[in-house]
Write a structure and sequence with these properties.
The protein contains eight helices and five strands; from the N terminus they run ααβββαβααβααα. With 204 residues, the chain is α/β, with parallel strands linked by helices. It has three domains: 54 residues, no CATH class; 98 residues, ATPase, nucleotide binding domain (Nucleotidyltransferase, domain 5), CATH 3.30.420; 37 residues. A five-stranded mixed sheet has the order 3-2-1-4-5.
Length: 204
């Protein structure tokens, strides 16, 4: 499929078919290795260089469960050389446990392995779970022990979700949210968005 739009790849695949060589580089194993090389040695390497050039950065993390395994999605926010604010995904990190101590140690060890200095963290962005936000046993306190200027900020997305969730206990709010959802679905399914040329409206 990609070869239909990429002349270099098309030429490569055509040459393989014309030759008698067994090396095709199209097996799932080789493709996964190529993707890993691109991700680790090119994309992530360049991203880390940009973060190091910015020096100060923000860490954002959220714990997720996938196939009965706990993982930590980690991202960095920084200002690049063009003075643009960037938010970039860094890695999925396996968590043996989801306690504040284990998560904090995992974040610190990951940043160290990537060559990022924990002392340069200025803000931490997590959800409001006790393991992340607690002043006594939470990740944010343990990170501040290593980087005292790393202020904890409750993730705005999580805050908005909590506000809407609690507000929906009121019938009026729930009705408003429902109407907004219906409006979004209506416009998403409109003929104009679907690219249809025939628009017919009936006024009553």
């Amino acid at each position: 499929m990609i070869a239909n739009h990429d002349d270099i790849l098309k030429q490569h695949l055509d040459d393989i078919q014309l030759s008698s060589r067994n090396v095709t580089y199209t097996s799932p194993l080789v493709q996964n290795e190529i993707i890993e090389i691109m991700g680790q040695d090119i994309i992530l390497k360049n991203l880390l260089e940009e973060i190091k050039a910015a020096k100060l950065y923000i860490i954002m993390a959220d714990e997720v469960t996938s196939h009965n395994k706990e993982q930590l999605a980690s991202c960095a926010r920084f200002i690049d050389k063009n003075n643009d604010v960037r938010e970039e995904f860094i890695a999925f990190i396996h968590l043996p446990r989801i306690t504040g101590e284990v998560i904090a140690k995992t974040i610190v060890s990951t940043l160290q392995a990537l060559g990022l200095e924990i002392e340069n963290v200025r803000v931490q962005g997590y959800d409001g779970a006790a393991s992340m936000s607690s002043d006594n046993v939470g990740v944010q306190r343990r990170i501040r022990e290593r980087s005292p200027k790393a202020v904890y900020v409750h993730c705005s997305g999580h805050c908005l979700n909590l506000v809407i969730s609690h507000s929906c206990a009121l019938l009026q709010i729930r009705n408003v949210i429902d109407k907004l959802n219906q409006c979004c679905l209506y416009f998403l399914g409109s003929p104009k968005r679907e690219g249809k040329a025939d628009y017919s409206f009936t006024c009553h």
